[in-house]
């Protein structure tokens, strides 16, 4: 009897202990909620404070971008308005003061901040000043007095003038020649046929003001060309429409119009000597904690806008962290009370816990099943798949990827991938730059397709060529940032393409041999007919021989062009520093030697050209092709006019422009003019295959550049293409010092290099033969006559340059 009683007492004591434990659950949970709530509140308040600073930085970026866009857009608008006025004046065959006044009336309500006046300026030699004055007085410039200043071979006088923005009018007849900046802008505008802007200087009209009222200003100049009334004539140059713009008034007006609040700014302009000059400074007051800088082009010049503002004046500043702190404390107290209440509903809480546990276990089973399925799929894929996280650590590396890379051991981070796996550029020598790896680019948010690289290491001494596609992982779906790359083995495909290119070169050589024989027989037959008595049959035979030789020449040129198209796509690049100026001069000289006697002498202008990083032979083909097109596609009876210039491109790049005054390219043909076998409808009367510009595009794109075409102001075409500067060559392309330090690696690289050279020997020989034929063979004679062949070397297949295509 005692035992049951003792057991019951023990049960009562255990029940009492459990009751006390259940009573403590609520306070303990509430205390935990309070601790978590305080921690979360403090962290949130700190994060908000950090977000305020980031918001101020974003607002500063946005305002600076708007200000930069406003300044650049306004300057561009000035140029467009000036160009439109110049075009309108050019249509007036007899320009008078009334015509100028009517043409410039829309400029008054156009809202041009900083503009002082617009004027019509004409050039006049020192001995023609009196005649020019009398001429324009007869056109309505009453009381015009031309007063030349200084001893200049040519003066630039303002004839008509309209004041803008209520600026006091200045007298007409002002000579701009004493101003080097303004005269240089006028000369550049007349030479290029485009709107030009001067270096900053004090306008001649403002030099009489006190120093504190003077401002650095610009002179915008647009050339005025007469409308061409008859085909075959160049547009007549008449003068300029010029616009004076005061720098400080321009900057203040643009920023006030943009409405970006208390934003200070400084505007700089780079002059022709490369110096950066501060033109204007606008200070609305306030601090200068945040600054931004942006550089942009204006009519061929570089302007720089530096903006500054106080973080307290930007959106986002306020008392939000304090409000969040107070709200977080209140919410923490409320949640603690709710937890206290909910903790008393034990059964309900247990039910929720059991249900949640069951769901979690089910989700875990499903997750394991999905993981197993994904692993099976990855193991069965024939292409390599690699996934890394945001720090470059491997998350997934399927067997196909390990087999392609050869080295099975993983390496921490992406920085050692190149050396560990032996990643090289397709040339087999240059280490692949880490910044260009598809996985690295994908981590930056860039997608890449078909990036080719060579993998060569101890386990793959011969190396394989792979094509890699890279994509960034969607953080919302994957749960974390990362990148995925897919590897395709294209070794056999490239070997097949190389064999095909070699086959094309051999076929081209074999096809040209019978053509040479046909040409030689034609010449022999022509010599036999030279002594034959004149007659209808002899004349018909000579004409037939001429047609046969002409068709043989055309067939040889077509074979050379097709071979150049193949080599431009597949031939290996031999990159090095190329002096572009001497290369262009050599092409022009050889083009001049190959031109026919009696042909119109072309007008050539070659500006300063930089040194570039390129394949010299392929770059020479591009230059020869573009200059050849400019010489060929001109109207009958007119001489060609060609300008070869260079302007600054993106950092480390230059943009080469070849401009002509030829027949031009219609707008509907511009999007497809670089496609293979495409010819514009305006080229119907000219010989060619439609492959010349396609070859140029392939060569430029293989150098990493772009090529495009646009209309040339005044008529003709302007072809632009970009190339990397020699001074900005990729440092990763230099020799790897580890190759000389490690004898085993050096021997391995030498073996692979020998194999690569053997594989590409035939293709290089085909390219070299074509270049030698193009350089050594003169232009073909018009007909097969013994006297003509005695004066010039025999014509051989391949004499016609690819640039004529």
Please outline the helices and strands.
Layout (H helix, E strand, L loop, with lengths): L1 H89 L6 H8 L10 E11 L3 H9 L16 E10 L16 H13 L3 E2 L19 E9 L11 E10 H12 L5 E7 L5 E7 L7 E9 L2 E9 L10 H24 L2 H35 L3 E6 L4 E4 L1 H7 L11 H5 L1 E2 L13 H6 L4 E10 L2 E13 L2 H4 L3 E8 L1 H40 L5 H35 L4 E5 H15 L8 E4 L4 E5 H17 L8 E8 L4 E8 L31 H11 L4 E5 L5 E8 L12 H5 L1 H34 L9 H6 L14
Parallel strand pairs: 17-19
Antiparallel strand pairs: 1-2, 1-5, 3-4, 4-5, 6-7, 6-9, 8-9, 10-11, 10-15, 12-13, 13-14, 14-15, 16-18, 19-20, 20-22, 21-22
Helix content: 40-55%
**Class of secondary structure makeup:** alpha+beta
The share of residues in extended strands comes to: 15-25%
Number of strands: 22
Rounded average pLDDT: 78
Tally the helices: what do you get? 19
Identify the overall geometry. Answer: flat
Largest sheet features: 6 strands, antiparallel
Largest beta sheet: strand ordering: 11-10-15-14-13-12
Spatial gap, N to C terminus: 120 Å
Integer-rounded radius of gyration: 38 Å
Provide a concise account of the structure shown.
The protein has 805 residues and is of the alpha+beta class. The protein is built from 19 helices and 22 strands. The longest helix is centred in the first third of the chain and has 89 residues, at 2-90.
Structural commentary:
This protein has 805 residues and is an alpha+beta fold. Helix content is 47%, strand content 20%. The protein has 19 helices and 22 strands. A 6-stranded antiparallel β-sheet has the order 11-10-15-14-13-12. A 5-stranded antiparallel β-sheet has the order 2-1-5-4-3, sandwiched between helices. Helix 12 (491-530) runs antiparallel to helix 13, helix 13 runs antiparallel to helix 18 (743-776) and helix 15 packs antiparallel against helix 16. The radius of gyration is 38 Å and the shape is flat. Residues 1-12 and 731-805 have low confidence and may be disordered.
